[in-house]
């Protein structure tokens, strides 16, 4: 940490700051420039936030040098983390596609979709049983009934199930049915939910908040790891910007950025990331080319009748065309698509 | 709602859309231009989101005409809503200042602050007992112990208490101690928490999410009102933009915008809105001049030792100077500052 | 400047960086932590950008400590700068209101507006003769004819004239007619135009670019001062954010921020800052309460027939009501409104 | 265009609006709902901006239905436009890579770079002779001398030359030396420069402004086409968002979005788009996978000594590795890399 003193700060003021830092266990390095005094402080990075030196009127600014995260960092764990889910692995050479409707609407809808996406090459089934909706007048999900349909679809197809949890009180219930718990974008900094998810025993897919910086996102993952759950995957789903043609701005640079800073896998959601079905296919290809470890894509048998997100959902036919394209692309990237290994159906 | 068909859409495609709308109870108006067919649809605005017509490839776009909110709207309730809390009223002619530390750190700290801000003219005491913190390594709050200290400070000073709730399971507990429940910015779209807060029987201060649009914010308030709690106040605390000199960009235009669209009071938080103590005083004045119904301001007896937000906290001395200035300003605005009416201590 | 080396960087790599810095005239301070080597470098801040040390793979990051601007800085010039224009002063105790239409549309329109705004208390007349328009199909301005009408309005009313220049080739022409040259938001980083404006001999009002940071804005002003023109005023007119209810997000915190960092006056444009006429009056009040040295406001005798910006223009009647309100407010702020001193008409 | 009247607007007010529209040549369709009167108006889309109906207090909002651009639109020109430059074509099946330093620094530097990038497979040489720099104290370019070096490099290598023009007065000069004129991001809405570039007789690469919406960007291209120059290419180089790990947020969704809305080619700049050299390679791959028609990449023989943008520049060695990877990728995408066809050297 670097502390920059204001021009004209007195010896006493400099002394006060350095005493404060020494008390907190930091080692100090003083550097007196012509215009400014600058102090370097070396110590435990996790105690940094507790020190609010900018509250002192004679401190101009405090510049943190080390990142505030630890467990999610590649420095802490240099090799790629591989998340094992059932008989699948995420974070290795195989790229996985998670597909399904935004919301579980009915038994028929989820089973039809599951068979279709498995046929096309998906390895995970997505679908929300608990839905965080902007409007109180919108469909809020089938809840446990929806979870049962997802489990039934897994039985029939061998697909693994990923589904969202939005209430800390439901974590155990969702973990009973799901193979992966999804923390949605709007809950990325719902620390209560993160702490609960840390205890669930299941891998967690952590979506980026619509206005979360890379560092805040990594700190949210740090909550889950600090709580004892090391099975975390990042999921970029677009950030909020001034551009309104797309629903969000899909920030694919997060793929190589996260791979540089962290050991955890990165999944891309081109459906929420664009909000328009006709942009999903090209952006899915771009995501893989950027190095993503997987995709999560909305597929609905009848998008125009979907209770939510119809306009960004692929039909099973379009999904199949996209999967064929992705298979070809992954091999040019020296990776391969995951496969449902169990003989089911 | 206006549905714009793509160029060259066929009679069958137009028919399909209009049938779909008619089935959902909408009345249709067809307008055939030279380049495009446009359809006006009139019906229940709350059913709009259920219809995902943009999922149809021959629909170019759907333009909603009516706002999706109802209960929060000034059309629904033309007069200003006055929120009654203890013997105070928010939303009328009196402007209230809520002040106190970011976090309740100790009994001594909260009592010292409470007396100081009451002396200077505040009518509410703020202070967090449950803290949503970006880092798992930061202080997470004194929890119920903190709530007890706040209640004790109320006893001693006559100040009303506002404090944040971050877990749906704690709503009843917090409501037992607090006069106003605060929903923090990062929980603005934590719909589980909103639904629980709707049932608590206490007024709710709803902070704007860092990347929430005005409409999404109003929809979050709609959740609370739809759940039966009409005692809602909006609180602008800055939005996330590219500018990093300030912690957030305080969007004061929301004051007149909300007063135009809604009947609910608007409070401004210049502390989080700027992140720098030396900007708090001028922005507090600006907030009142823009028409705000109140302020929520961080005050700490020793900002440089605060466990959080020290750099945006005023000392009691600076707070007093600001309050004197605000008193003079409010009278030029034909309003007056609230006062603690009860004779305590 | 602080240079942070990557973990595990070798003595040679550290040596290379420090040699590089020494060659450029920087004095070096080495600090070897357990995890990282950190280097403090003290030298000429304006040479900083020439050094691209982050291009070296073993440099983790470079953190600038001093701001890159000099002439615009309050450290360089501690007292407030007062800009003298005709017999008026901006930056002192008097607050000036600049008013008029977006574009000069006709002689009659500009004369009618000029008399109306002078009557209401404005001291400057605004109006564009050269218009930067988003669409090539929109009205592009009356050019020199418009400048002549502005000059005629000045003759008749005693108002000073501020008008925009958009082409470096027109700077001399515009400076012949105008009292203040306006550099528009989209030209804030048109460095060619800035350099030309530096030579025009007239004060310059520099609008903030829609996505310019505070530092970039100050650097743009530095261009004009570095070119020899010290008569610069900042003008905040809203930044581009995700919020679309308002045309831009008016960032009033720039008023106290600029007053802290710079000695130059700050003007606020609540018309472009909000894009809606009914938000102009409250935001104009907020601007003054935040400490602005002046306002620039769009007024049009018939907003619904304006060739541009009608929806954010006040009628003369509404402008008069606002001015009465501002007069009362300024006195509560211990300032006063400017006045046209010459006996004209 | 749809005009939504406020609740309770009178017959006279509705009449006034419809008369106004009829006078401007619009055909009107009236739709009286229970809550609102809505008016559909069909007419010339380019006259829309001239009508400022929202200035009328009884108009709630005006919703444009048709896009304001024409010549850049795919509706106007359904087939892909192919831009012919020398013996190369952009916009067809071949993907072109433009490479070179940020700034032309010396004859030796540009010749060394030119040979290196040609060797690796680039077909265009980039390099700025006129530099728009944030600071007046930074290197501002070699100007005409730089243009001569670029032309000499073209002679030696057969690479075509693309270089930026920043002053309308220099357009003819730059067009004399360059094969493609680049309009930089900060000049995207410098309409004076756009109009001049429209007359230069050379293809133009139009970079997206850091806060320009898709529509504003297309309107800027419309200026060039409306001025008679149909040889326009879009170049996405990242937008300004809250994320600061990357210099900008590279918005790759613009590739399929522009391909859907326009017939013009789309080039991606992963160097400015990320600001970090180690992100350039993965994002270049992602750009091609998204369907980009070309790339523009910064390459410098000694990035750590570059006068600008060193930290986002590839060394010739890293560029070569990337090009080999891109060659393999393009063939999986059924495209191929462009080649320098002339036998030179």
Automatic annotation (TrEMBL), chains A, B, C, D:
Q: Does the keyword Transferase apply?
A: yes
Q: DAHP synthase ferredoxin-like domain spans which residues?
A: 1-66
The EC number(s) attached to this protein equal 2.5.1.54
Q: Where is the DAHP synthetase I/KDSA domain?
A: 91-327
* A GO molecular-function annotation: 3-deoxy-7-phosphoheptulonate synthase activity
**What keywords would UniProt list here?**
Transferase
Question: What's one Pfam family the UniProt record gives for this protein?
Answer: DAHP_synth_1
- Enzyme class, broadest EC rank: transferase
**What top-level branch of life does the organism fall under?**
Bacteria
Name of the featured protein = 3-deoxy-7-phosphoheptulonate synthase
**Source organism per UniProt:** Desulfosporosinus nitroreducens
């Amino acid at each position: 940490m670097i502390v920059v003193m204001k021009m004209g700060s007195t010896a006493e003021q400099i002394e006060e700051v350095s005493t404060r830092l020494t008390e907190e266990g930091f080692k100090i390095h003083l550097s007196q420039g012509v215009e400014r005094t600058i102090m370097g402080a070396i110590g435990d990075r996790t105690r940094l936030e507790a020190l609010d030196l900018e509250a002192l009127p004679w401190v101009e600014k405090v510049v943190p040098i080390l990142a505030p995260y630890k467990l999610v960092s590649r420095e802490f764990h240099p090799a790629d983390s591989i998340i094992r889910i059932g008989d699948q692995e995420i974070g290795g050479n195989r790229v996985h596609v998670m597909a399904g409707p935004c919301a579980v609407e009915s038994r028929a809808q989820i089973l039809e979709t599951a068979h279709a996406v498995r046929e096309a090459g998906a390895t995970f089934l997505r679908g929300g049983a608990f839905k965080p909706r902007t409007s109180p007048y919108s469909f809020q999900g089938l809840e446990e009934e929806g979870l049962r349909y997802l489990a039934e679809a897994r039985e029939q197809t061998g697909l693994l199930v990923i589904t969202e949890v939005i209430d800390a009180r439901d974590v155990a219930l969702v973990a009973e049915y799901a193979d992966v718990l999804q923390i949605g974008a709007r809950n990325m900094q719902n620390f209560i939910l993160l702490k609960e998810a840390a205890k669930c025993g299941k891998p967690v897919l952590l979506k980026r908040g619509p206005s979360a910086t890379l560092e805040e996102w990594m700190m949210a993952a740090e909550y889950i790891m600090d709580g004892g759950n090391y099975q975390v995957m990042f999921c970029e789903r677009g950030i909020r910007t001034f551009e309104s043609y797309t629903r969000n701005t899909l920030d694919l640079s997060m793929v190589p950025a996260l791979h540089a800073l962290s050991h955890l896998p990165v999944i891309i959601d081109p459906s929420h990331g664009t909000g328009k079905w006709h942009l999903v296919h090209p952006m899915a290809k771009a995501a893989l080319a950027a190095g993503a470890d997987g995709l999560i894509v909305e597929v609905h048998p009848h998008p125009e009748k979907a209770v939510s997100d119809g306009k960004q959902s692929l039909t099973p036919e379009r999904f199949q065309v996209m999967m064929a394209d992705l298979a070809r692309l992954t091999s040019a990237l020296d990776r391969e698509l995951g496969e449902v290994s169990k003989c089911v159906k």
